Amino acid sequence: MKTKITVIGSANIDFIMRAPHLPALGETVTDCSFLQTFGGKGANQAVAAARAGGAVTFVGALGNDPYEPIMRRNFLDDGIDVEHLAKCDDLSSGTALVMFDGEGNNYLTVAPGSNYRVTPDSVRAAEEAIAATDWIILQQEIPLEANQAALELAAKYDRPVLFNFAPAHELRLKPGPAIHGLVVNEIEAAAVAGLDTSPRDVPEAATAARKLLDRGGHRFVIVTLGSKGSVALTRSGESFHVPAAPCKAVDSTAAGDTFCGALAVALAENKPLEEAARFAAAAAALAVAKAGAQPSIPRRPRIESALLR
């Protein structure tokens, strides 16, 4: 039987421009190529968890626009339960403008749209699904109050939460015991831990992870470092570094989301944290090798094949 994953978060329409190089302020870069796909951190994590083998429920909101039925159909095609995916008649769906170069670096701007209509009431309407889930995944592209409501229900039903503290623009929600596992990249680690600079290597990431672990009651922290892999630290004293799988980076947009979705599935299957992190790293490496957020997210057979290399 598939493990149950509940993702509460954002869904976006992505408009992507691939450029020879990222522009400087005021610079116009021509000879680009264009791609329209679907993304949003919550939606990406839901798709990643579903393709990694989880039975996923997605709690979110779409707008009233031509993309809404297509986005809903895409979720259904991946076997995702969209009973709690609302439609807002007076707003457009979330929209992201993404520009990236041939090295996998990107600029990204987002208009939240209907994502800011994910409310505490939206979350409470999914209480039955949350009570029955194996893991909950949260991020920060929806209102703080919705995440707080999700954490309250997670505590009520003793359900573990994987919190991807991204983007790190809202720091009022403090890491605490309701969050089982915390996942951050270098920039987010610095913001949440109150560091002057982002960790640049494995030892500095381990130091940041220790600060984050000391600040809350969560059981583990993972700091992702892009091409340098990830560093994990647990409250029980376990620590390890998972190197990034070799790959040619094309687009890093959904790498972190893919990591989180795959990690939650592996943990729900009772894999040890290090094994789960390696599974997630393999999924993320496959994702960066292809353009687009959701189109790049791999399915389980490819992840397992990559692990055998």
Largest sheet: 9 strands, mixed
In CATH's first tier, which class applies? Answer: Alpha Beta
Biggest sheet strand line-up? 5-4-1-8-9-10-11-12-13
How does the overall form come out from the CA principal axes?
Answer: globular
Q: Residue-averaged pLDDT, rounded?
A: 92
Radius of gyration: 18 Å
CATH-defined topology: UDP-N-acetylmuramoyl-L-alanine:D-glutamate ligase
Element order, helices and strands? EEEHEHEEEHHEHEEHHEEEHHH
Q: Please count the beta strands (DSSP E, at least 2 residues each).
A: 13
**Strand percentage:** 15-25%
Number of alpha- plus pi-helical segments: 10
Class derived from helix and strand content:
alpha/beta
Commentary on this structure:
The chain is of the alpha/beta class. It has one domain: Ribokinase (UDP-N-acetylmuramoyl-L-alanine:D-glutamate ligase, 3-Layer(aba) Sandwich). 34% of the residues lie in helices and 23% in strands. It is built from ten helices and 13 strands. The strands form two sheets. A nine-stranded mixed sheet has the order 5-4-1-8-9-10-11-12-13, with helices on both faces. Strands 3-2-6-7 form a four-stranded mixed sheet. Strand 6 and strand 7 (106-111) form a beta hairpin. Helix 1 (41-51) packs across helix 8 and helix 9 (273-288) crosses helix 10 (300-307). The protein is globular and about 50 Å long. The model has no long low-confidence stretch (mean pLDDT 92).
